[in-house]
Amino acid sequence: MSPLRAVIADDERLMREQLRARLAEVWPELQIVAEARNGLEAVALVEQHRPDLVFLDIRMPGLSGVDAARQIAQMAVADDEYLPEIVFITAYDQYAVQAFEQGVCDYVLKPAERDRLQLTAQRIRARVALRDKPVVDIDDPNPPLQLLLHRLAAQLNPGAAPRYLDWIQASVGSAIQMIAVAEVLFFISDEKYTRVQTATVEALIRKPIKELVDELDPVLYWQIHRSTLVNVKAISGITRDMRGRQIVSVRDHPEKLEVSRSYGHLFKSM
Questions:
Q1: Start-end of H helices in 80-221
Q2: Which end of the chain has a smaller Cβ tally under 10 Å, C or N?
Q3: Could you report the per-residue pLDDT of 206-246, keeping only the tens digit for each?
């Protein structure tokens, strides 16, 4: 396996230097390809270097580490293949939520300690090794990355709790119809429209998936492809086709939905 490559993002120069030094001790084969001073720089450097993992300080000026991670995740959607591992850096252990320990992503408390970084290195190597393994279990207790990022954003801004859509106003033929979001099986976008599919109705809206992601409850709707959101309760199973792609079957509808490699982490490895 080629050495893994990383980007470090922290607005404090001394913290970046300390993390780099500790990583050199416990993970000498890891290549630090760039350092960012804020979230905007982090997103740009990830796009430029395409590292295997990103260390993001949770609190940074301009764009927080959580918001930077959300942009990086959306960047991965457009790529359809590439999604780096995320490691959050924080001085506040209240952000070390249970989801971190469950392995969706990882965290390191400031100042970075050798033992904790060794554990992070082990976890990242294990996740990278599992990327191409069969993934078919939808009962995984680990929350998807986008759900974790929503939870962290709510912790950082407790007074700004998100309001998710309950209804969609969509075109059905020549008529406009109100569709309950809970009844939607999946959303699929093309260049101009997004199809809203229920068990009985097919409708269209002029809203891209990248906007719907932030307007729908991430507990109920998972993004599985750059063009697809699926109602978790509507998933009846996951299989692989002849090319090894993960395919989602949906209750009450014959259509099969492809899962991009960027979202293979949504389903538990066998």
A1: 98-101, 114-129, 145-156, 209-215
A2: N
A3: 988 888 887 888 888 988 888 899 999 999 998 888 887 88
Which CATH number belongs to the domain containing residue 208 in this structure? Answer: 2.40.50.1020
Say which residue the tokens 């950082």 belong to.
156
Q: Give the number of residues written for the chain.
A: 270
Answer for the pair 130, 142: CB distance below 8 angstroms, yes or no. no
55 and 119 inside one domain: yes
- Prediction pTM value: 0.64
Give the integer Cα–Cα distance in Å for 181 and 167: 5
258 and 178 in one domain?
yes
Residue 25 has pLDDT above 90, yes or no: yes
* Neighbouring residues of 71: CB distance < 8 A, sequence distance ≥ 6: 39, 43, 63
Structure tokens at 249: 């079957």
Q: How far apart are CA 257 and CA 250, in angstroms?
A: 8
Query: Does some domain include residue 233?
Result: yes
The predicted-structure confidence for 71-110, as pLDDT tens digits, reads as follows: 887 776 555 556 788 898 887 666 555 545 545 578 888 8
